[in-house]
Amino acid sequence: MTQEHDKVDGARRSFIGAAAGLTAATVAPGVILHTVAAAPRAEAVTDKVRWGMLIDTAKCADGCTACVQACDRENGLDLQIKPEGASEQMWDRQRAVWIRKVQVQDNLTGRVTNLPMLCQHCEHPPCVDVCPTGASFKRADGIVMVDRHTCIGCRYCMMACPYKARSFIHQVVAEKLTATPRGKGCVESCNLCVHRRDHGEASTACADACAAAGHHAIVFGDLTDAGSAVSKAMAAAASRQIREDLDLNTGVRYSSI
Amino acid sequence: MANAVVRGLLAVTGLVWALGAQPVAADETFVTPGSNAAGLTSCVEPTDFMRRNHMEIIKHQRNTVVHQGIRDSKHTLAGCIDCHVAPGPDHKPVSVYAEGQFCHRCHAYAAVDVNCFGCHATVPTPATASKAASGEFGPDVAQVPDQGAAAGGNRP
Number of CB pairs < 8 Å for A and B? Predict the structure, then answer.
């Protein structure tokens, strides 16, 4: 009797195997989608990480807007609609932008430099200093962002930012993405793709797009980790902060300027 | 005699009406047919608890998400929307805050005016553009039909 129980029933085993395979195949579409995405963060962010970027302006191509477009797509900024009756000029000034392509010229030599300008994620952010509600804040991992739940839209931070990095949403937002909630009456700016950070993804939309366009001008990573690509790039090449006279210790740095 | 018949009829009509107008039993559901929620026995917490406290738990969760980046909670507004959004006649998801849809129906009855959806999407959208480009979606949109097209054209 015991022997009978101990004996492996090959046919039964293969049947169960096939059934399990079939079940997996049926359920797989949902299950696989759930497991492919990296696990969302379960612990609070700490200051053991500081996210930052090095942008090599020598590699930033004239006329290329890959990073801007990628940012717009990632955060639903391309879903903005020009309000009826607004002039093109006004819309250009008022539409939300998280990255701007800027051209700077040295008047003495005539040398022109292209660079993407975005929130510099300062260690001592002036926008946080001036915010009357605490909506503008710096996360422990160095990301400077706006808590839209507490933002009252006073735009004091926009006045305080030396980099003109912030935008105000003037109109009702008809279409928005799940990952980037955005709505009328709040200030917003680059948050280093915070939803990607919290899902353990390696890069930002702009850095990915720049690499995909073949320029590799943007290197993103952890500034506190000496082994990260961004730390190595910073150690290898001279880099500068924009408005370094303000002593803000920016997380976004530029080389070749 | 005729009076008695009329009275009798009236009484019977009244009884039938009274019985018909009785509220349905306690397990009555308000979820929108066709949504994922319609196929589940309860929400992420027991139904009675959710009816009274859903606003408290998502209000707490929003702070931990925004300030601490903790995103593994089962109490998320995105989760509410994923589960309670129902497909319309064209199989595209209908806004959860459209008239007659789950969130709006109860809030309208309770005279509650929330502004969650001033900023938050009312239908599930691809988790990130990069995933949309590669045809891979986050769990948010796994069950939503008509969202498997190329990037850009697949967003509501």
Answer: 107
* Mean local confidence (pLDDT), B106-134: 78
Is the pLDDT at A79 greater than 50? The verdict is yes
- Does residue A31 share a domain with residue A150? no
Could you tell me if A206 and A138 lie in one domain? Answer: yes
CB-CB contact of A127 with A144 (8 Å): yes
Mutate to test the interface with B, among A33, A178, A203 (most CBs of B within 10 A): A178
Among the listed residues A88, A56, A70, the one whose alpha carbon sits nearest the alpha carbon of residue A239: A56
Q: In terms of domains, do A91 and A172 share one?
A: yes
DSSP B116: G
Same domain for A220 and A169: yes
- Residues linked to residue A103 through DSSP beta bridges, in sequence order: A114
Q: What does the pLDDT read at residue B153?
A: 35
Q: What is the pTM of this model?
A: 0.77
Beta-strand relationship, A144-146 and A218-222: unpaired
Closest residue of A to B123, CA-based? A178
Does pLDDT of A27 surpass 50? no
Q: Which domain holds residue A29?
A: 2-36
Cβ contacts (< 8 Å) between A177 and chain B: which residues?
Answer: 121, 125-126, 155
Exposure string over A70-98, b if 16+ CB within 10 A, otherwise e? bbbbbbbbebbeeeeeeeeeeeeebbbbb
The contacts of residue B62 (CB under 8 Å, 6+ apart) are: A149, B77
Does residue A13 lie within any of the structural domains? Answer: yes
A18 domain-assigned:
yes
Residue A136 covered by a domain: yes
Residue showing tokens 């706006």? A146
- Return the residue in B67, B75, B82, B128 with the most chain A beta carbons within 10 A, the one to mutate for interface testing: B128
- Alpha-carbon distance A59 to B24, whole Å? 69
**A20 occurs within a structural domain:** yes
Q: What is the pLDDT of residue A10?
A: 58
Assign A112 to helix, strand or coil: strand
